[in-house]
């Protein structure tokens, strides 16, 4: 084996190690950017709309998507170059984080739907409560007939 070949193999090994480190760092960034469980569970507000708005804010995935995209990019590059000896753990973590981001975003969307629905529902219910009772306004003799 020539010196050049040995140097290339060594450089490739270093690059593979750096790629794996980049994937791991991006995955760590994605995990850190996800909402904290307590932030989602413990929200405070004076009313339902305030609770929903607080929850919607707490369900923001922040930069998690960007970090996950970077992890996928470096993982794909390493896989195509056959640079990883054992990358099943990386693939599993990428999938786990992607699923979690999807779940958080779905929950945030549902909360957003409620946030826009609750004020309208309140208004409708208040209008219903304030409407005169049709039976009470009817002539008592007509009600008996």
Can you put this structure into words, describing what you see?
With 145 residues, the chain is mainly α. 80% of the residues lie in helices and 0% in strands. It contains 7 helices and no strands. Helix 1 (3-33) runs antiparallel to helix 4 and helix 3 runs antiparallel to helix 5. The longest helix has 43 residues, at 88-130. It is rod-shaped.
Key attributes of the depicted protein:
145 residues; 0% strand; mainly alpha; 7 helices; single chain
Content of β-strand: under 5%
Q: Assign an overall shape.
A: rod-shaped
Structural class, please? mainly alpha
In N-to-C order, the SSE pattern is HHHHHHH
Give the count of helical stretches.
Answer: 7
* Overall mean pLDDT: 88
Describe the biggest sheet?
Answer: none
Low-confidence stretches: none
The helix fraction, in percent, is over 70%
Provide the gyration radius in Å: 28 Å
Let me know the number of strands.
0
Span between termini = 109 Å
How would you summarize the topology of this molecule?
Blueprint: H1 3-33, H2 37-41, H3 48-58, H4 64-80, H5 88-130, H6 134-137, H7 140-144
Helix pairs in contact: 1-4, 1-5, 3-5, 4-5
Write a brief structural summary.
The protein is mostly helical and 145 residues long. It is built from 7 helices and no strands. The mean pLDDT is 88.
